[in-house]
Amino acid sequence: MHEALMVLSNNQFQKVIADRVQHQDFKRIFQCPECHATLTFRRSYTRNGHHVPAAFVHPRDGKPCEERVEYNFSPTKQLSPFELINRGQNTQKLEKAFLRCQKYFAIGTQKSSKIPSMLDGWYNTAAGKSSRGDYCCGIFDLTIFDDPFTEDWIITDSNLKKKIEYNKINGAIHDNPDFLIEAVSKVFSSRRLDIHFNQEVHKVKNSILSDPQRFNFFEKKRKSDWWKEFYENIYGKTLDSLSVEDLVDEHIAHLNGLLRYLRQGISLEAKKKFFEVLILGSLDFPVTRDIVWTQEQRNSYESSVLVGLCIQEADDLAKKNGIDKKAIFLDYPIHIIAEARRKARLNYERIFESILLEHRSSVLKKREGMIESFSLMSKDFLEGIMTDQHLKDAISDFDRGKRSLGSRFIRFFVSRQISFIKRYDWSVLPLFYEDIRFLYLDFFQPSKTSKESSKAD
Predict the structure, then answer these.
(1) Containing H/E element for 38?
(2) Helix, strand, coil % in the chain, rounded to nearest 5
(3) What is the pLDDT of residue 326?
(4) Burial of 396 by CB count in 10 Å (0-12 exposed, 13-18 middle, 19+ buried)?
(5) Which of helix, strand or coil describes residue 154?
(6) Beta-sheet pairing, 12-17 with 445-446
(7) Does 216 fall in a domain?
(8) For the chain, how far is it from start to end, CA to CA, in angstroms?
(9) Minimal CA–CA distance to 390: which of 400, 375, 411, 405?
(10) Is pLDDT above 80 for 169?
(11) 282 burial class (0-12, 13-18, 19+ CB within 10 angstroms)?
(12) What's this model's pTM, rounded to 2 decimal places?
């Protein structure tokens, strides 16, 4: 478990968090706030490359307690992802669920998914309005980092993967992107930054409570039939029993838990994957559609544009040749159809190149500024910031508002993590943990296994 009561005297106790227990308090007595059993304090350690956070452990022969961590899970009694996070535990299944959920949020408009799009937010200023307001999970407006640039063509996992691969090419955004991601992953695991992340989450709560629109998200959620069904099936409780303030507190608790999990709970490899998406897949480094589109997407776009162009060209040719306008394209004479298709193809290539040139110009302008900033994060700087003294100096500069490279590095990546995590309703994480597919009429049916899927195909 993650929290306990530290005994200070016979009648004096202090609530403490395992990963914040000071060295001088290691030998003190700790008690469970629920069953009052004496707990063993287990310090953090690394096992098989995985960081195992500090925790308080119940005696194995102790009486049953809701806070007690069971090590031999039965198939019928599994801990939920948030229970695992709050108890300071980690599994490969949890890591995969967390990363899948992050990717889904990053993609946002994945039309092929049965899970409602997280970018269909009530406050999606980029889209102007929500097409599925009753289902959405976006809490803050989604014009990320106050930048109007959007990438409407990043709609599948394959698109996101292609974008990351493009940005990962040495020199595309940084001389050594792998080392940059490793440095960020290690630096932001430091306990020295705990207070800064806690302060940022506190600001998030204040911004929700002080902004009627953001607060309204939780009011709508509480009244939503979809969310009522979701909570009853996934959490085994009714939304009617929760106030709007309860839902806000739940969201903030999820943010605190997930940030603690991201920074000190998951393995280094999983952390790198998270930052790979956060940095290389972000709007800081946009790409044009021709870089990320699959062949199927290219063909689909081309077909939809060509249909309109063919009809337009056929109508123009018919008018020039004194032929009556036809309601159906294929009703025109064969020579008109053939010429219309030829001209449409030429126009399509011209139009598509024009669109790409326009996009390349805006993309290049956006990328250049960020690439210039990232170039300051040299290998020497990254090696230095990973040492305790350099990190301590950078945090000191950050606290004092001094604009050193170290303080700017801290500010940038703290804000990026908070900006991403805060935007979405993470109560949907159990869906990714159990690999459940959302069906709008038929809720919460388990997905097929790979073998069943291959048979069906």
Answers:
(1) strand 38-42
(2) 55, 10, 35
(3) 87
(4) middle
(5) coil
(6) unpaired
(7) yes
(8) 45
(9) 405
(10) yes
(11) buried
(12) 0.72
Sheet containing 38-42, strands listed edge to edge, beginning at the edge strand earlier in sequence: 12-17, 3-9, 30-31, 38-42, 55-57
pLDDT in tens, 73-114: 333 346 789 888 888 888 899 999 999 888 888 876 434 344
Compute the distance between CA of residue 381 and CA of residue 188 in angstroms, rounded to an integer: 15
In the chain, the number of structural domains is 2
Which has the closest alpha carbon to 421: 199, 146, 138, 213?
138
**What are all long-range contacts of 333-337, with beta carbons under 8 Å and residues at least 24 apart?**
337/310
Residues 257 and 372 in one domain: yes
Say yes or no: 269 and 406 in one domain.
yes
Q: Express as a percent the part of the chain with pLDDT over 90.
A: 32
Q: What 3-state class would DSSP assign to 18?
A: helix
Give the confidence band of 49 by pLDDT, cuts at 50, 70, 90. low
pLDDT digits (tens, 9 = 90+) for 362-381: 888 888 888 988 999 999 99
Give the 3-state secondary structure of residue 139: coil
Please indicate, yes or no, whether residues 65 and 160 belong to a single structural domain of this protein. no
Distance, in Å, from the CA atom of 277 to the CA atom of 159, rounded to the nearest integer, reads 12
Render 245-271 in DSSP notation, one character per residue. HHHHHHHHHHHHHHHHHHHHTS-HHHH
Amino acid present at 70 = E
Other C-beta atoms closer than 10 Å to the C-beta of 386 total 15
* pLDDT confidence tier of residue 279, bands split at 50, 70 and 90: very high
Of 45-59, 116-130, 275-289, where does mean pLDDT reach its minimum? 116-130
pLDDT at 334: 92
Q: What is the mean pLDDT of the chain?
A: 79
Task: Give the Cα separation of 138 and 117 in Å (integer).
Answer: 9
Domain of residue 160: give its range.
92-288+363-434
> What pLDDT is recorded for position 240?
86
Q: 271 and 210 in one domain?
A: yes
At 273 the pLDDT is 96
Closest CA to 376 of 173, 167, 146, 147: 173
Q: Is 52 helix (H, G, I), strand (E, B) or coil?
A: strand
Which one has a higher pLDDT value, 408 or 232?
408
How many residues belong to the chain?
A: 457
Q: How many CB atoms lie within 10 A of CB 320?
A: 9
The tokens describing 122, both together, are 């009530």
Residues 62 and 99 in one domain: no
> What does 306-319 look like in DSSP terms, one character per residue?
HHHHHHHHHHHHHH
Write out the two tokens for 385. Answer: 């910031």
Q: Give yes or no for a contact between 5 and 14, defined as CB atoms under 8 angstroms apart.
A: yes
Residues 155 and 214 in one domain: yes
